Amino acid sequence: MKVSQAGKMALSAILSNKLRSFLTMLGIIIGVMAVTLLISIVQGASNTVTGQLDDLGGDQLIVQIINPTKRLTLSEVEALAEEEGVAYVSPTLGGNGTARAFGNSMDVSVSGITGSYKDVQGLDLESGRVITQTDNDYRLSVCVIGRKVATELFGTTACIGKNLRLNGKDYRIAGVLTEQVQTAVEDPNATVYIPLTNAQRLLSEVNVSLFYVAVEEEADMDAVKALLDRKLLAKYDDEDDYLIVNMADVIDIIDTIMGTLELLLAAIAGISLVVGGIGIMNIMLVSVTERTREIGIRKAIGAQRGDIIVQFMIESVILSLFGGIIGMAVSQAVLTTVNILHPGYNFAISFNTGAVALGFSILVGLVFGIYPAAKAAGLKPINALRYE
Question: Do residue 107 and residue 43 come from a single domain?
Fold first, then answer.
């Protein structure tokens, strides 16, 4: 018997009892949904987190001075920019404050930065300009504000040239940022950026405890990190007094963790596919019992054992394949809905995830269809024809 003929007979058997066929596929549908949703959510979350870290600087080092009694001066930090392999050094000074304008006020983060900040961290402006080295050299009272600060205080982002009062001191707005994604580290939308030399006075802090180092494109990140380690160790005599974080290493660690989590969740979700396969096997056994006379007639007119096996195996695979396709369609609908409700995420079923889910559902159909097919093929014609 041709495979195409066996396929037609399998489809006819499935369509003759639509409700039972759907209930049979339900386990596969749920299993494929579980696999694709969990893996896609983990992949989407991983991409979001690593994307945020990339925005913070995947090609840079972050240096945090831990010892409060020994801090670096601004000149000492800026001198590191002359070292081999270092492209830019961006010291920052952070704190909190209250910004006021036109009778409105809000609590904001204050970030003192230098002219190199835009080269290391970047500032995506909607209008205006960034903080420059000239602003720092002359300690100008200018600022760049986040979008939330602009709308809360002025009701609009068109506020270049206007003044806001920050901790009792007036600052002229030089730039306004576009809408930024809030990270676990900071919320740029609620931040006021001012020249670092001005922030030293405003926040009453002269020394620098945090700075970013951008590495030249052809330079070895590990070599630059070792160089910084030698420089800082010469000043502090104890490695516990400072911390150097390689952002590339952080991203690699997160990718590894997410990859492990993805495999674990896929294995857990795969159990539901196996349960769905057991459901297919049970229904196929019932189908064999119901169609015993049909099998006896086919064998009596010349059908071989292999023909019966192929027919029932194809029926099992079609059930699992259709279940997998429906499960993926429902998963994509759920992910699309989540993306619409939460635009910050971009969940989608990747090609590899879809291929694995469909492939595993077909494999389940093959494995759990073997026993019912073998049982059907093993029926003796004379006994099958007598079956009522």
Answer: no
